[in-house]
Amino acid sequence: MKKQIQLLSMAIFAFCMNVIAQENAGLTLPTGFKASLYANNIGTARHIAITKSGVVFAKLNNPNKEGNSIVRLEDANNDGVADKMNGWAKYGGTGIYVKGNSLYASSNEAIFKYELNSKDEVVNPLTPQTIVSGLLDRRQHNSKSITFDKGNNIYVNIGAYSNACQVEDRKAGSQGRVPCNILDSAGGIWKFDGTKENQTYKDGKRYATGLRNVVGLDWNNETNQLYVAQHGRDQLNSFYPNLYTDAQNAELPAETFYAINEGDNAGWPYVYYDPSQHKKIVSPEYGGDGMKEGSSEFKDPAVAFPAHMAPMAVLFYTGNQFPAKYKNGAFISFHGSWNRSPLPQEGFFVAFIPFKNGKATGEWEIFANGFAGTENGAKVTNTSKAKARPCGLAQGPDGSIYVSDDTKGSIFKISYSK
Amino acid sequence: MVNFSIKGFIKLAVFISFLGMAQSGNAQNKINGKKIFETRCLVCHQSDGGGVPNMNPPLDGSTNVNGKDIARLVKIIRNGYDERVALDGMYYNNAMTANPDLKEDAIADVLTYIRASWSNKAGAVTISQVKAALLKNKAAKK
Question: Is domain B25-141 in CATH 3.30.70.240, yes or no?
Answer without folding.
Answer: no
